[in-house]
Amino acid sequence: MSALFTLLFSAMTINLTAPSDTTGLRQALDAEFGSHPEAVFAVAFKDLSTGKTFFMNEHASFHAASTMKTPVLIETYRQAVKGKFKISDSIEIKNTFASIVDGSPYSLDSTDDSEHDLYTRIGTKLPISDVLFRMITKSSNLATNIIIDLVGAKNVLATMRKMGAKDIQVLRGVEDDKAFEKGLNNTTTAYDLMLIMEHIAKGKAVNKTSSQAMIDILMHQHFKEGIAGKLPADVKVASKSGSITAICHDSGIIFLPDGRKMVVVLLSKGIQDQKTASGILANASRILYDHFVQ
Q: β-strands 125-127, 90-92: how paired?
């Protein structure tokens, strides 16, 4: 009886951990992405319950757009845990920043930002928690630069390296035109963003309490057209998207009703129309969901 139990248990274990056939999944994604041959796409997926992964072009480098705000979020909580400040502390709202090229000052234009209210608060103080919330949920560029000034881009990058993200580059704040002209841009790969989101999902980004606080912020994401766009209503997503001209990304953690968690990262470049690009990412997210969940 004992030998039979061992055999059955081994069979169950093999069944749970064996990689699934992803031929059909790859064909479905190829068909979806193939509708725009001028574009480049990348996918990184991990089921945190089973350890199953799926990758396409996962180490290709893309302009990070606003996906770099998640590493900034992590570094802010890391420094808070180290005692440099409290997340509840107040910070001055300003709109003057130094270029990483020569230190010359530059400011952001509210008309180019996705969040406008913060510009009306310049010269006042707000809790760091408020600024972080705007940075993630409304993707405020002004909030991002204020926080980067607080924690330092070099520190953000160092923390990413310690987390195993070897290729992501967080060099500067947003709208540093002199840096842009010299090619000094924030970049990422789908694989690195997957690692970062996995750390948050597992409670290992700084610590469990900080990770949960980050998830709570990511859950309030205003821009949900990508990963969450075509998923069932009872599926929750904590995510951070990013888009600039011909760039459209989304990265996040999917929470299923049964408690399972999955990390999905979808990157794209080359599609001029953002609505079209977001639609393709939403379709790709649903294809992944149908394969690994349904």
A: antiparallel
- CATH number assigned to the domain with residue range 23-292, chosen from the 4 options 3.40.630.30, 3.40.710.10, 1.20.1440.80, 3.40.605.10: 3.40.710.10
The model's pLDDT over 77-95, given as tens digits with 9 standing for 90+, comes to: 999 999 999 999 999 999 9
pLDDT at 294: 76
Per-residue pLDDT tens over the stretch 239-273 = 999 999 999 999 999 999 999 999 999 999 999 99
Q: Is the pTM of this model over 0.85?
A: yes
pLDDT digit string, tens, across residues 145-159: 999 999 999 999 999
CA atoms within 13 Å, Cβ hemisphere of 45: 24
